[in-house]
Amino acid sequence: MTVEKVEVEPIELLGAETARDTARRWLSNSGIVIGGGLFFLVVLSALIGPYLLPHNAFDQSLIARLRPPMWSGGTAEYPLGTDHLGRDYLARLLWGGRLSLMIGFLTILLAGTIGTTLGVVAGFYGGRIDFVVRFLIMVRLALPAVLIALAIAFLAGPSLKLLVLMLGLLLWDRFAVVSRAMTLQLRNREFVTAARAVGCSDFTMIRRDILPNILNYLIIIATVEMANAVLIASALSFLGLGVQPPLPDWGLMIAEGKEYILFSPYLITLPGLAMMVLVLSVNLLGDGIRDVTDPEAKGR
Amino acid sequence: MNQSANILSVRDLDVSLPHRSGRVHAVRKISFDVRRGETVCIVGESGCGKSMSAMAILNLLPRGAERKAETLSLLGEDLRNASESRLRRIRGNKIGMIFQEPLTALNPSLTVGEQLMEVYRRHRPQEKANARARAIEMLGQVGIPDPAERISQYPHQLSGGLRQRVVIAMAMMCEPELIIADEPTTALDVTVQAQILRLLIDLKQRFGLALLLITHDLAIASRVADHIVVMYGGQVVEQAPTSEFFRRPLHPYSKGLLGCLPTSQPGRHGQPLQVIPGTVPSLIGDMTGCTFMSRCKEAQPACAANIELQRSGDHWVRCDRATLPEAL
Amino acid sequence: MIAVSIVGFILLRASGDLALRIAGAESLTEDVERIRLAYGLDRPIVIQYLDWAWKALHGDFGRSLFFPEDVSTLIAQRLPVTLWLGALGLGASIIIGLPLGTLAALKPNGILDRVLLGTVVLGQAMPSFWLGLLLIIFFGLTLGILPVSGSETWRHFILPTAVLAIATLPTILRLTRSGMIDALRADYIRTARAKGLSPASVIIKHALRNALIPVVAIAAVQLGALIGGSVVLETVFGIQGLGYLAWESINRADYPVVQANVLVLGAIYCLLTFVSDVLHALLDPRLRDQ
């Protein structure tokens, strides 16, 4: 039986996206705009701010101790006041921003690498490797991370380097879980089978078929874990076993300011607010990215 | 036509849905009747608006949808402005609905029995105690073996065919006058399809139900329907009693549909399969004229203007190119 | 479980010279050596571990280096406090989060939804110890209506519970909300409406029942995380729970306590994961046949 030659009319496409459409869609998402904007501001101020200020974050000054910020009677010389050692609070806050950002980035770099590698390998190869990885994840989750971090920090001597190392080695679990789940899904899709049929090596398949497709989710996880890292790091510093003085980590600043809260509450409210802004911006950014790249997850 | 013999009367029903770039007019001024004890089949391809029409009757439309009708009456009651609570009393009670995919149509966390009984308890509160007995009885009626055991099973424990029987039983729990079935056999195996169809016909005869069956499969319609309504692009393009329809289809689309059916009739062997060229047009925005125009072999410029329904007895057609038989 | 204890053990030993820490940084070398011998810290790690594990299986976690009591006694004393705190915090967040999440899901992107999501997003960004401090300042010092430190009376639990609840609320709310949004889109909801059931019945009996399944499972695990992370809050509020004990012990290199602490916390987590799986199976009939 032959099929008649049929004249098909051009199909009206319901809008394949142009680059401009994509840009517009991304920019219309409130999470991305607000979160991204805030984040950008934070990064900018952290990087450049300290160079613009008259006082730096470390100079102590006995005469200038505990000056209040501008809105409760201070001067423009110390816009956000000074701490108990006479150091300019604004400068310290901005410096603290640098620290937090650095901690955040390095942590997700380390944790992301570890977690993604584990997860992808487990999802791709399955079987015993998967079993081992899942076991590792379980163990990691069962460990009270904060406690362990504290203990190690105490025994080995706390420092910034140690902090980043520990966080990187402790926060990889969500990367692993998500990348494993995604890899499992993708592994069974046709384009992977097609690649294998053509004779691609495993490594190539992972690199070109799987990784690009999970990148979205990884970025989203990265934002969440970055915020997490900053929060945990500040908690550790608050307890004294994270960043060490005289470095101005926000958690540490809160701990230092604890004793003066009655008369100088700004000493703890400001760093906390700063942390909120950073975490908020990162979270919003992550939410926004998720909304835009995974429409089915809308409404979450 | 004697209106009081009509279970369901629909005239000029419109349904539109929100869309990114305007409104989609999924259903455009359709009209049909379902009489007592009759089976009416709405036939059409995917996207022609047949499911929407069915949902519109009971106002089970998605958020943002708008519905308008000249007439929409059930057993003489005007449903156009009926309150939500009034509609709730009708749903499941006077009208039973059967959907396409039996696994997802049933709640996976509740037992089959519970889902059957809750309809009964809702609409017959004074007979709550009989709910269980009635459920077992209905399961038996739809041909499920061991109904007393099945009643405490969960949907995932039943096969596809059994599940659909449960859905049918659920629709019949409160002795409705009309059953609306939206592609009830499409998701089932071919062998099971035949069984379910037979069951529907059987139930219809036993209980004197009216049946509004929605399907894309003309073969099913030919076996079950008393009356066929053909839809395309949101419009009713032809309506006729079944035998009349198959004997003398009038609308170019209907003719095309029948021509597409592979047939083993002698004389047509070796002939190429006929195909209706083109694809379904977008239904966004207002459209005047015939929606089939872009694919119609007999289209003329005049088809772009609003085409009125022409009638000859029970045979209606929305096409100026069609030649109606003399009025009967 | 075993792995947890091994990892904990190794980490503690490996990350620094324990004997040195116990003795204090400025002690003489011979003192350090004496301590090392006395506590058996000079034996190979494997032997130390096996020795400890064996005793632990019999419920003997050794003596604390600081307190006069057994480690087991110490832990038994403090554990209930931490458990209570965790349960209260989780309970509060569920009581508030479930209904709000459901309401939000009914009109996605409506006013209530946006307000709730906005609030929740703020809550997630707050460092818990900071919030704790602020609440202490406000309620404890300025208004003076709630006690600031310690864990004697029930009043002492109000603030920490509030902080915990605020910390967990975002997760619960979002989970409920997304679960409900999904459930409400399902076919069986359409069927339920087509049966003429009342909206309350549709929402609660049909949708919520299915939406809750993942929420409950995750809530159990969240409890585990809460308990594991209790160190910070207990320190801020002076609650005499497991976390605070751990904190004190870490600072004093009271390693038997810390080890036991890690083990117990790990055990609690494993238990809760198990409970979560059980609950999951109980609630989802599809899983029961496995």
Helix-strand pattern of chain A: HHHHHHHHHHH
Mean pLDDT of chain B: 82
Annotation, overall tally of beta strands of chain A: 0
How would you sum up the major sheet of chain A?
A: none
What is the overall pLDDT average of chain A? Answer: 77
How many helices of chain A? The count is: 11
What fraction strand of chain B? 15-25%
Largest interface, per-chain counts? A-C, 44 and 52 residues
Helix percent band of chain A: 55-70%
Alpha-carbon distance between the two ends of chain B: 14 Å
* E-strand count of chain B: 13
Write down the secondary-structure element order of chain B.
EEEHEEEHEHHHHHEHEHEEHHEE
Quick structural overview:
The complex is a heterotrimer of chains A (about 300), B (about 325) and C (about 290). Chain A has about 300 residues and is mainly α.
Note down, in words, how this protein is organized.
The complex is a heterotrimer of chains A (300), B (328) and C (290). Chain A has 300 residues and is mostly helical. Chain A is built from eleven helices and no strands. By secondary structure, chain B is an alpha/beta fold. In chain B, the strands form two sheets. Chain B has an eight-stranded mixed beta sheet with strand order 7-8-9-3-10-11-13-12, with helices on both faces. In chain B, strands 1, 2, 4, 5 and 6 form a five-stranded antiparallel beta sheet that branches. Chain C is mainly alpha-helical and 290 residues long. In chain C, helix 1 runs antiparallel to helix 13. The interface between A and C is large, with 44 and 52 residues.
